Here is the input.
Amino acid sequence: MPQTHSLTEEQFGAAMSECRSLFEKKLHDYGASWRLLRPSSLTDQLFIKAMRIRSLEVTGTTLVGEGIRPEFVALVNYGLVGLIQLEKGYSDAADMSNEEAMSLYDHYAKSTLELMLKKNHDYGEAWRGMRVSSYTDFILTKIQRVKEIEDLGGSTLVSEGIDSNYMDIINYAVFGIIKLSE
Here is the structure.
């Protein structure tokens, strides 16, 4: 089993490297324009991406020529943006340097990896036996939970917070990237 865990960490690192590279390129092109996203708008962006994946899975057709994998990459990046926005709050301007944005991206990517490794240990690599469509459904469920928590003003009785849901969304999206690469 330890070999599988190191394989998972290696595959996770490769997928995150791909996501980071795209994020850095978009940061170059657009700056930190995502700083303007309020929490509900960011949640809706995640929802749009996950629903597009589900639509592609169900219909098998795309009219814009992009497939499922790029949408999982987008979910990873928007999930990390969500974690940054939870810490910093939204802004009325792109008020963050590219260097600061990348530093925060790396910080939250590392935290998300650490969470995945702990859960992966406890769940015994169960994600490998799952269907990609289940990742999509779990992501949509997590997004719905975030919406509910937002509607409650962040006040939950027994549930994990928005940050935990974002991390789970990121991890399921990375699993999707890995599965679609195999």
